Amino acid sequence: MPTDAEMTPRDEVIDVKNSDDIVAARQAGHQLARDLGFSLTDVTMIATAISEVARNITSYAGSGAIRVAVAERDGRTALVVRAEDEGPGIADIERALEDGYSTGRGLGLGLPGARRLMDRLVIESTPGQGTVVEMWKWIPANA
Q1: Is it the case that residue 109 has pLDDT exceeding 80?
Q2: What contacts 132, CB < 8 A, 6 or more positions away?
């Protein structure tokens, strides 16, 4: 997974500790997606995916951060969302990406839903050390 150093100067970091921060992260992604020329449908999908991963931060880790940026991924330019926390981590990433699986009280739709909404989603997690979820959507050719 790329590091923070590979993000471009056009990025914003939102600390996530409560539901107001989830809204702020969603709005930051929404605005960047609009600025980049994404369709209204894609803008909505990006904002929704951000809400899902930000909600996971508040539900499971307590606090963390969401970074929205423009960066190169797989040789193409993308809107990249990077969610990081120092929470309990995810013991079984493959299972966490299955619809309906949840270790909490949720419906188990957060990570699988976010993966469907974006072009790519990658998770790195170590139990007891936290989680990094990075997801991206390719910037439209007409942008």
Answers
A1: no
A2: 1, 82, 83, 84, 123, 124, 125
